[in-house]
Amino acid sequence: MTRDYDRSAEDIGNIVGLEHVNVRVPDQRLATLFYVSGLGLTRDPYLVTGVANMWINVGRSQFHLPTGAPQRLRGRTGLVLPDLDALERRLAAVREPLAETEFGYEAGPGRIDVTCPWGNRVRCHAPDARFGPITLGMAYVELDVPVGAAGGIARFYDRLLNAPAEAGEADGAAAALVAAGHRQSLVFRETDAAPPAYDGHHLQIYVADFSGPHRRLGERGLVSEESNRHQYRFRHIVDPDNGDLLFELEHEVRSMTHPLYARPLVNRNPAQTNNAFAPGHEDWPWAMPHAD
Questions:
Q1: What is the tally of structural domains in the chain?
Q2: Tell me, what CATH number does 82's domain have?
Q3: Position 56 in a domain
Q4: What is the CA radius of gyration of the chain?
Q5: Which residue from 269, 272, 271 is spatially nearest to 283, judged by alpha carbons?
């Protein structure tokens, strides 16, 4: 018997992965307490293992946390974590050592909203149908943008990055919704609040068509850095209809031939402790087994 499939459901678009969010932190010890002990994530054991930077694995994505004056994402990062009850217990355990910071958290239906010691917001979701088989991962980055910007931002990603994008709605507000990999997205949500000044934080994406966006961005003078043969950067998001600047966010754009593309990342099971250890359960699979 022949089965009918919606083949378009498996389309991703040109952005094949949202790989990392980069924000500076002034204290690596407090960052370890928050990202490793509190959120239950994993420090990359192979790369950037000194005290000047830290890479934190979350499924197939990462946070990059170089030491420096704190940076704040103008929005929030959405994570899928496997056990919100365990997350809440871990967050309670780090409340005291993080008491003199901006750290905090609040539980809601199917999620916990967390604030890092320097004010970055993270929304942690339980696995559900929206995220497919993902049990641990970076599902989205949501940015707060000015009213009226969503339509032009959607056009920017659609025409210049060749990423499926549309003007829609997020949490009751107009938004640009951009596909940024398998079960990953960028969400640009309009808000009346005046955005704070851009402080240089960035995110990194992998693209299948590396030269096409580079050419189109270059024609508009938007390429901000020619990093190397596998990477370039841009930071201005403009309306392709009129060139108006809509939002500023540095994008580190990498090719699928980049040496780091699809590098396997270690993800630990945070329930494992030296006093309650179960051999063979040290690693956490970032996705459930495939179900057709």
A1: 1
A2: 3.10.180.10
A3: yes
A4: 19
A5: 269
Q: What is the pTM of this model?
A: 0.96
- Across the beta sheet with 202-207, the strand order is 42-43, 55-58, 61-64, 15-22, 202-207, 245-255, 231-238, 223-228
Tens of pLDDT, residues 12-52: 899 999 999 999 999 999 999 999 999 999 999 999 999 99
Q: What are phi and psi of 278, to 5 degrees?
A: -120, 110
Which residue range(s) make up the domain with 27?
13-255
DSSP lists the bridge partners of residue 165 as: 178
Q: Is residue 6 part of a domain?
A: no
Residues 6 or more apart whose Cβ sits within 8 Å of residue 271: 83, 86, 281
Helix pair angle (211-219, 150-160), 10° resolution: 120
Residue 268 is assigned to a structural domain of this protein: no
Which DSSP symbol is given to 195? P
The amino acid that residue 10 corresponds to is E
For the stretch 116-139, pLDDT in tens is 999 999 999 999 999 999 999 999
Q: Which amino acid is at 3?
A: R
Q: What is the DSSP string of 14-57?
A: SEEEEEEEE--BS-HHHHHIIIIIIT--EE-SSS--SSS--EEE
**94-130 exposure pattern, b = at least 16 Cβ within 10 A, e = fewer:** beebbeebebebeeeeebbebbbbbebbbbbbbbeee
In the chain, where does DSSP find H-type helix? 28-32, 84-93, 150-160, 211-219
Q: Starting at the earlier edge strand, list the strands of the sheet with 165-170.
A: 104-108, 111-115, 121-125, 75-80, 137-146, 185-191, 173-179, 165-170
Residue 63 within a domain: yes
